[in-house]
């Protein structure tokens, strides 16, 4: 794998594009000064969307690296960001109903056996005792945010979206190995973890959890065994309950009774 040659940028002859091309061509990359309209507007590429750059790796192969370590605080109280890369896509001057905007497009394709695979893999490591400057600040491996500064008159608006599609099967299906979202707490995690799913709202909302397509769901909750949060108790409930959980079924409000004891 090649690397940047800073001497190229000190030369007075040639354009920046030519110098970049000299560097990146050494690793099988291509660089052009203008967008290639015949290849999805490509300016820089290792392979292309339609043609891959085939390799036979003998060890880990990661052709593009950015690695930054911040070693000192700048001393002010602002919320400045230290980041390895910044990307932005915008549509602000005209309606563009024929366009889909996606600032980063990632594809992982499998047709053979593999150890494991991810579309995007993000790790946040707490390597030493750490605290945020604000109690409401976050330490989060993956973050998604939807900012509604104006109205959405048609379409879904979500901070996160997960879709499973296709006619393929995951076997054996009884082993619970395929989910729209899987949240796992590994063995050895300190008992300070409060839950696997936390729902919170500062604003009035219709429901904490909403289901659609209920006729296609056999169960709302599927417990793998009796025990812990699923207690075996065949006694009759008391005549009165201590609380009730509000639900809505097809527009009709209802309640699930909660008993202090049985």
Can you put this structure into words, describing what you see?
With 262 residues, this protein is largely without helices or strands. The protein is built from 1 helix and 4 strands, in the order αββββ. A two-stranded antiparallel ribbon has the order 1-2. A hairpin with a 2-residue loop joins strand 3 (243-249) and strand 4. The longest helix has 10 residues, at 16-25. The protein is extended, with a radius of gyration of 26 Å. Mean pLDDT is 84; it is low at 1-14.
Q: What is the arithmetic mean of pLDDT?
A: 84
Radius of gyration, in Å, reads 26 Å
- H/E series: HEEEE
Please provide the count of β strands.
4
Fraction of helical residues: under 10%
Q: What is the first-to-last residue Cα distance?
A: 68 Å
Approximate strand percentage: 5-15%
Shape: extended
What structural class do helix, strand and pairing data support? little secondary structure
The low-confidence runs, each spanning 5 or more residues with pLDDT under 50, are 1-14
**Widest sheet, order of strands:** 1-2
Report the biggest beta sheet as strand number plus sense, adding barrel if it closes: 2 strands, antiparallel
The count of helical stretches stands at 1
Q: What's the quick description here?
A:
The chain has a two-stranded antiparallel ribbon.
Topology of this structure?
Elements: H1 16-25, E1 29-36, E2 42-46, E3 243-249, E4 252-258
Antiparallel strand pairs: 1-2, 3-4
């Amino acid at each position: 794998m090649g690397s940047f040659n800073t001497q190229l940028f000190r030369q007075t002859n040639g354009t920046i594009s030519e110098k970049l091309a000299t560097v990146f061509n050494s690793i099988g990359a291509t660089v052009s000064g203008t967008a290639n309209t015949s290849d999805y507007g490509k300016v820089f590429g290792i392979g292309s969307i339609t043609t891959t750059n085939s390799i036979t790796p003998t060890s880990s192969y990661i052709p593009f690296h950015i690695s930054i370590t911040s070693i000192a605080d700048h001393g002010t109280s602002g919320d400045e960001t230290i980041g390895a890369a910044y990307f932005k896509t915008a549509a602000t001057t005209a309606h563009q109903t024929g366009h889909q905007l996606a600032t980063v497009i990632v594809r992982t394709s499998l047709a053979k056996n593999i150890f494991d695979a991810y579309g995007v893999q993000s790790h946040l490591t707490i390597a030493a005792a750490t605290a945020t400057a604000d109690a409401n600040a976050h330490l989060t491996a993956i973050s998604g945010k939807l900012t509604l500064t104006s109205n959405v008159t048609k379409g879904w608006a979500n901070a996160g979206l997960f879709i499973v599609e296709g006619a393929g099967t995951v076997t054996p299906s009884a082993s619970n190995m395929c989910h729209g979202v899987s949240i796992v707490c590994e063995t050895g995690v300190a008992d300070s973890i409060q839950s696997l799913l936390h729902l919170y709202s500062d604003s009035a909302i219709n429901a904490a959890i909403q289901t659609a397509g209920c006729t296609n769901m056999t169960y709302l909750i599927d417990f793998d065994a009796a025990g812990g949060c699923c207690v075996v108790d065949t006694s009759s409930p008391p005549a009165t309950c201590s609380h009730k959980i509000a639900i809505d079924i097809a527009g009709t409000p209802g309640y699930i009774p909660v008993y202090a004891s049985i």
